[in-house]
Write a structure and sequence with these properties.
- The complex is a heterodimer of chains A (83) and B (483).
- Chain A is an all-alpha fold.
- Chain A is 53% helix and 0% strand.
- Chain B has 483 residues and is an all-alpha fold.
- Classes of the chains: A mainly alpha (83), B mainly alpha (483).
Chain lengths: 83, 483
Amino acid sequence: MMKNIEKYRNAFMDALELEEDQVSEELALGETREWDSLGHMILISTMEDVFDVSIDAEWMTEFDSYKAGKELLNRLGVDFVNE
Amino acid sequence: MTFISIEFLLFFAGIVFTYYLVPHKWRWILLLAASYSFYATLSGYFVLLLLISTVFTYFTGIVIEKQETKQQKKRAMLVGICVLLFFLGWFKYFNFVNDSIRAISTYMNWNYAIPYQEIILPLAISFYTFQAVSYLVDISRGKQKAERHYGYFSIYFAFFPQLVAGPIERAKKLLPQFKVEQTLNYDNISYGMKRIAWGFFKKTLIADRLAPIVASVYDSPDPTGSQIVLATVLFSIQLYADFSALSDIAIGCARMLGIRLTENFKQPHFATSIGDFWNRWHITLSTWLRDYIFMPLCKGKKKRSEIYVAIIITFLISGIWHGAAWTFVLWGLIHGFYRAFGDHTKHFRGKVATFIRLDQSPSLHKWMKITITFLLVCFSRVFFRSDSVTVAFENAQHFLSPSSWSPSGIIVAFEMFSLLDLVIFSFFFIVMQLYHYIERKNTSTWNWLSQRPAVARFAVYVLIVVSVLVFGATGQGFVYGGF
C-alpha cells in the first residue's frame, strides 16, 4: 500500500502537473509557475480527495508550501511519520 | 442626509460627542438610534425592511447554531439565505427578470401578461444582505457564534458609517469591537478626521467635478470615438474617486468611534493584472465573493477549465450584484473572461516578454502591465457606464476603433472641459496622485505627513479643507450608494 508521503508527492505531481524531481521540500506557492492561485485551488481539491479531509478557506491560505501543507494535513489527522 | 453635507457632519459630530459622554453599556442604543435615524433620512419606510431582515437573520443565526448535525445546520442556513435573497431579488431584480421574460416572449410571440411593476430599490440592501449571508454561512461552518445580544447584532447589521456602501464587514471582525469599551483617543479622532476630509476631497474635487463631464458624453446621442475614449478614462477616475471617498468617510467615521473597518481600496489603477486589480478594488466584495462563491464552486475541481468556469460564474454574480441590468451582466462576464484568459495565456505572455527582452527592464515591464490592465478595466467600464446593451456595444466599438485614439481627436475631445474646469481638475488630480505616490513609497501618507514640521502639516490640512469649501462640487449621489 502506498505511504501517505508518497500519496502527498503524487498529489503535487497530478494537481500541478510537475515532474517527480520538481517536487521538493522547498516547493512553495507562487514560486513555481505551476503553483499559482488557480493551481492552488486544484491542489487543495486533490489533497481533499486523496486524504479524505476537508480543507476550509482559512486553512487554504495556510497551505502555502510543501512543508506547511504536510503540517496542516497532519493536524487534520494525516500521519506522515508512524504509518 | 448624505455623507457630503453639513447636516451629516453636524449629525456625526453630535454622535461622537455623545458617544464618549455616555457609559459604554448604553452606547449600543446610541449607535442603533443613530444608524436607524440616518437610514430613515435616506430610505424612509425601508427602515421596516431593514428591521425585518435584522430580526430574521438574528433568529436564523440562533436556529442554525442549535442544529445538531452539519447537515441540519446547512439546511437551516440555506433556508435563511433563500429568504434573504428573496427580499433582495424582489426589490432589486423583479423588473429585470420580468422585462427580460417579456422581451423574450415578444420575440417568440408568446403571451406574457405581467406588466412592469413600480418597485423602489431600498438603499443598501445589496450590502446588508451580503453581510447577513456571510454571518449565516459562518455560523453554519462553525466559525462564528450566533450573537445573542440583539442590540449589538442590530448595529452589526446597520452600523451607519458602512451601511450604505460598505466596506462589507464580517461579524467576527465588527461585533467584538462594539463590545469593547472604546475610550476617547486623540489618534483615532485625528486619523478619522483626516480620512473624512480626504474622502470629501476626492468626492467633491474629483468625482463630482468629473461626473457632469462624463455624463455629457455618455448621455449624448452621437458622441465621437475620441470623446468616448476620454470620457471612459475620466469615468474610471470618477468611479475610483467616488467609491473610495465613500470608503474613506466610512472608515474615518468609524475610527472616530474607535471602530476599525477593513480597507476597501489599494490604488487599483496601479494593478499589474486583472487578478491584481481585484485584490485592490472593492476588496471587501472581492473577498466576500472569493470566500462564499468562488471557493465553494472550486470544491472538487481538478482541472483549470473547471476553475475557469467557477471564475466566470463568480464574476457573473459580481456583475448582477452591481445592478439589475444586462450591461452589468456583460461587465461581469468581461472581467471573468479577462481573468480566465489572463491565466490561460500567462506562460505564453511570459515567453513573449522574455523573447523581446522586456523582462530585462522590470520597471518598463511593470508600467506596461499597469497601462494594459488600466485600459482593459476602462474597456469593461464602457458597459458599466452605458445605459443599455445596444448603446454599450456602440460605445465599445468606438472605444476599440484605432481612429478614436488619434492624439488630435483626443485633444479636441478635451473641449468637453471648460478651461477653468480643466485647470481645477488637473490640479486636484495631481494632488491625489501625489498622495498615492507617497503611499506607494511609504506605508501611509498620513504617517509620513505626521513626521513633517507642524507648518507643513497644517498647510496640507488647510489646503484640503479650503479646496473643498471653495472648489468642491456637490449634488451628485454616490455611484455605489445606488447598489
